[in-house]
Write a structure and sequence with these properties.
InterPro entries: His-Me_finger_sf, HNH_nuc, Homing_endonuclease_His-Me. This is HNH nuclease domain-containing protein. GO terms for molecular function: endonuclease activity. The strands form four sheets. The protein has a three-stranded mixed beta sheet with strand order 2-1-8, covered by helices on one side. It has helices at residues 16-24, 55-64, 93-102, 121-134, 138-145, 149-157, 167-172, and strands spanning 2-5, 10-13, 26-27, 34-35, 39-40, 43-48, 51-54, 66-67, 72-75, 88-91. The chain is 37% helix and 19% strand. A hairpin with a 4-residue loop joins strand 1 (2-5) and strand 2. It folds into two domains: 2-102, Homing Intron 3 (I-Ppo) Encoded Endonuclease, Chain A (Alpha-Beta Complex); 111-172. By secondary structure, the protein is α+β, with helices and mostly antiparallel strands. The chain has seven helices and ten strands.
Length: 180
Amino acid sequence: MLVADAHARTEIQITPQLLRRFWDKVELRDECWEWRGATRVGYGAIKIAGRVWETHRVSWLLHHGELPEAKYVCHHCDNRRCVRPDHLFLGTQQDNVDDMLRKGRHNFGKGEAMPNAVLSDAVVLQIWKMRSATGWGSRRIGRELGVSNDAVEKVLAGASWAHVRPQQEQERGMCQKPPA
């Protein structure tokens, strides 16, 4: 059987071997049917004909035969590893974002809570202390701390790490972001 994913502009051949590979990695439970194989950014992943597919999309294709263009396979259950067909629904990117916001699942962390953070709270406080004690510009502070000029400028302008400020700077109002 051939199934089409118009969103990815490709098709996959559903073979007995693919079905066995897929279902061997699914743990059937009363609630979510969880993928127990490889993952990519939290979603189940399986390689088919040289391409990595998200397993919830494969599950949709197995059960429905096609995936319309510009549609996402979204999770009612919010479990990225779930492949249970009645936990999946089609939607646009906006539908997916709206679903996330409605359920309060967004977490736009700050500072060190962000996985790709380059600075730390301690370094940001050091930037403020150096600025206050020396009057140095962002380029000099960056050189001294081994931090990019751009990162220091954003801290001092209040465009990043605005939640980290030395107490005396907050009291004097020196840490306020200037009006645009």
